[in-house]
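Troubleshooting entry. Yesterday's outputs looked truncated, so today I'm pasting the complete records for two proteins to confirm everything comes through intact. If either block looks cut off, that's the bug. Protein one:
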Amino acid sequence: MNLRKAASTLLPLATLLALGLSLPVTASNEESWQKMSAAAKKACIEASGLAKAKASEPVVFSDDVGYIALLVAGAYPQKPMKGQKGRMLWLFERSTGKASAEEAAGWRW
């Protein structure tokens, strides 16, 4: 086989391969988003430590940010708190599954 002919055949194939690898990933389907939202709610409710905790609908930030925000409300289980209601704003990092919170006493839904 002629080296020039082989190169002319491989160059278009290599170009197509490179383009195929550089295309952006397509968006996830609705079921995947629902599963991720459910996982975020579960993680934040469990980590909150609040009794009878309920989570708001998630606020999903863009991929540039990569977080889901949730407001979790419930009652503090510690005896000195005497069942006082509490609210926590949770940020769930989609890439790692980690959740972190801050008290959000004045927030409502």
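Protein two, checking that the full record survives here as well:
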Amino acid sequence: MKAYEFPAVVNAEGKIVLPDTVLQHLPQNQHLKVIIMFNEPSQEEIDDQAWHRLAAEQLLKGYSDSDAIYDTI
């Protein structure tokens, strides 16, 4: 059994796109075993996303028309 390691992407339709150079080396009409590995976000990235979401939610809370204070001058 041979193994290849190469970068690939998932396109907008949810399909895995293999590089053409890899496809040229794969035998036609054979079954393949596929192992998919992907990078998970670090805990720091997860925490940053949570803080950004919380800050945006809190910021936008004050911009409702019902919350606005109008000058009566």
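Both blocks look complete. Sanity check on protein two: Helices lie at 20-25, 43-61.
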